UniProtKB/TrEMBL annotation:
GO terms for molecular function: hydrolase activity; metal ion binding. The chain crosses the membrane at residues 6-23, 28-49. It comes from Pseudobutyrivibrio ruminis DSM 9787. InterPro entries: Calcineurin-like_PHP, CNP_phosphodiesterase-III, Metallo-depent_PP-like. This is 3',5'-cyclic AMP phosphodiesterase CpdA. Residues 71-306 form the Calcineurin-like phosphoesterase domain. Keywords: Hydrolase, Iron, Membrane, Metal-binding, Transmembrane, Transmembrane helix. It comes from the Bacteria. SUPFAM superfamilies: Metallo-dependent phosphatases.
Amino acid sequence: MAATVLVNSNLIFWLHAIIFYNMNRKSLIYTIIIIASIISILLVCFGIGGKTSDSSKVEQYKEYSDLDNISIWLATDIHYIDPNLTDGGEYYQRMVESGDGKYMYGCEEITDEFISQVIEAHPSALILSGDITFNGARDSHIALANKLKAISDAGIPVIALPGNHDLTVGRAAKFSGDSYELVDSIDASEFLDIYSDYGFSNAVARDDTSLSYVTEIAPNLRVLVVDVNTVPGMSGILTNSTLDFVEEQLKQAKEDKAYVIGVTHQTLLEHSELTSQGMTFINNDKLLDLYEKYDVLMNLSGHMHIQHIKESNDGFVEIATGALMTAPNYHGEISLNGRRMTYKAVPTITDEKLSVAAEGFLWTNAYRQAMELVETQDNSADLAGYFADFNVNYIAGRPDLIQWDSELNKQWEETDSFVPVYFQVVADEMEASKQQNFSEYTIKW
């Protein structure tokens, strides 16, 4: 069976899928393709990242009590795979290396290190915002849930929700040598059973029609988990019944003078002016209306595998944390105290060898693909290396660290590829924005 059968078909951004698309830029048809492709690239370009925002919520919050030294950790897009489901053979290698840059070869080590860090730091809560497993295999869910028990046993509440790779996945498989065999995935009821101790059993309210729920971190702070991936084969749909549940809970929180943080897997906001599908979910606009109406503090998400921060037109903030398995292997650390919230994206890996391997994997993938475009040029290595460096900083939410080279940019312009368009979009947005650091953010009210 062809190696492409089980390749990740998620609609999230991956540079391999769009940058290296050969095209004739004089063609109107290809111009349309450019516009469609630019959606993902612009994710990092439209936003405010890294600055302090004076909240408009002051009027409502003036009657709320101060928050008292609350810390929340967040990880997203772990894509954990049970080691018993792969022998690291040829098929698995081909799939990983044709993927979106996740360093799956270090999955077990990265996951274990993250769990150890959570236990040592002992935050007020840990949020896992979806795509917990690698294509939803039941054994992977069970194995990860067993690992999470060490966190809950340490007295740290875990708040979990499914992503689009976690439920009823037809590609769930065990990999051996140069082949694979399909294995069981799980449905919503099984997710609830496996992760019952991770948010659900202690919920103050649960939605009857999805895996959405509300949990309380402090008497005046609640987390509203909104699930849009319950409907089999129809991930990314926020139903009207769940919207009703959300509004009911927001009304109750307002009455109780409790702050609310929203959590989704897919992004609530379109992180690009051109994004229309794939990153967000159906009825995201209705959820945003409710969040702005009831002055939700912010939304936390993932899905993009890119570190990014976005504000709505009315100033509502969403922070999308990068994937735990993709360099620089971020997790989010959130501190709430008094009337101030700070967020930082923190690299998880402390082992230098593992960190170098993860970043090298992301860099090499981009380099290899770039070389296919410029291999006939005398300085092909310089051109490909420049692109790979550029991409690593972009994925990390740090385009401000890109070292621009006008001569190499000019040479890329002469190629019949998408790369110069990518470069120009980032350059234009950096010029238009005051700051392009999406790894930290502060809200005050």
